[in-house]
Amino acid sequence: MNKIEPGIGINRRYLHDEVVDRMRDLIRSGELEPRARINEGELTERFGISRTPLREAIKILATEGLLELLPNRGARVASLSQSEIEEMIEVIAGLEATAADLACRHITDEEIAGIERDHLAMVAAWKAGEEGAYFGLNRAIHDAIMAASRNATLGGIYASLSGRIQRSRYAVHQTAEQWARAVSEHERMIELLRARDGEAFAVLMRAHIRARTPIITENFAAAEPV
Question: Which domains does the chain have, with CATH numbers?
């Protein structure tokens, strides 16, 4: 694991929650890669905290499946088998399909306009070959659809589960054909949102997520150190 760069210290008032959130972000962004050991010294220095709240955060993240506790050897970022990844993607596909259906019942015209703006920016990034910008906007669109479902329980389960494969989902290399297909499906999503056709949107969303299974599996495996 590369040395973690120093960052801004954590406000003591929100110490417990913020340590968990900051570590979760490091894992989801890929800065802490699968199977990487948790260096408590570097993290306590980075966050400006003692080891006690850090170790409490490690325990919480272990219950979420993001970290694995090693007997007498600290902790490391969790890894996933191919079958586990495939199972998770199938569940995520179901959650996003449900969100798509609910979003068509609750979404406002202003929210659709916001998604359209992100989509146009995403298409521009695609044409320019800017993968980082493309995947960031892609993720924003999916998050906006989930938010438009107006279902906090659904959103909470989705955030917890998708976070474990987030980096591989939104930072993968695709072929030109796969890229074009994804953009085309996003264009169709906006059409179905405008039409408030929840049933058709749910079917499309499930297929859209399932289609990425082999790409995510391959990328996740490649990211794991030997």
Answer: 12-77 (1.10.10.10), 82-223 (1.20.120.530)
